[in-house]
Give the backbone structure.
Amino acid sequence: MNLIFLDYKIINMSILNKMNTGKFIFIFYLLIGSALSICLFSAYTKRQNKSIVTDYDGNVYNTIKIGKQIWMVENLKVTHYRNGDQIKHITDSEEWRFDTLGAYSDYNNNASMSATYGRLYNKRVVSDKRNVCPKGWRIPTKDDWKILEDYLGGRFVAGGKLKEKGTGHWEDPNALADNSSGFTALPAGFRFVTGKFSDIGFSAYLWSSGATIHGQGFFRLHSFTGMSFNNPDYHEASGYSIRCIKE
């Protein structure tokens, strides 16, 4: 970013006209004593390389490039694997607890919630080789999350840069949330092993692929902090959100 200081009280507009058209010009008037200084900040426009991708069910997702990675901007909503096989939909708590196959649910078994927050999937869906992400996309690994976290400045600040701004979906205080990354993480909550739902508005739980009980299980964000958390503990019957990353 170039910083240019001009001591003139009047700027010749030709100066601005000669600036490259691919730049933004920000003009700030600073009053220093009786002198008026003008600072011109010129910065190249940031190209976010946004595009869309469609899943098997026809749901359309916005995407964004963050560093060298390309992510979906919404949580997954699909009810089929990539090959067209149906993912089991479970509402009953006992059935959810003892299911041995891949399954999904809507928060509080309310289908309308999925339009905003996406669906909650158990670990067996994540591990299934049929893949729930669209062709050319996959579930992120623990290393993918770490790369994202590091690119955004580390775990102590990454959460705030990933969370959607404001309290339209997040509960107060939604600490340090500015969504400067464009990732737009939403507090979709989760489903316990017991089948109970919890944390809507307060937390985002996002699966990692290839996880074992002793390794990375899921990525977590909270309303009360700008930090991000990599959690190794999970149960295969836990229901979390999925964000796909481009292969």
Q: What stands out?
A: The first strand starts at residue 2 and ends at 6. Residues 2-44 form one domain. The radius of gyration is 22 Å.
